[in-house]
Amino acid sequence: MIISTNISKKILSKTGMRVSNSATLKFAELLEKIIFDISCEAYANALKNNRKIVKKEDIINVRKKILE
Hints:
Elements: H1 5-13, H2 21-48, H3 56-67
């Protein structure tokens, strides 16, 4: 697992709620999947623009696409 449960617990605790260990683990898994999906989309965008390197604009474009 790339995202630690400590990080996900810190994020979840900002809501003021008490969070179980299983919820923290599941949240970390979900974050990891979301990050992977964003990375794949950003890479596809870079390839579309004839680049092998993902740039900041690729990430921003994915974010815009997701939030629409």
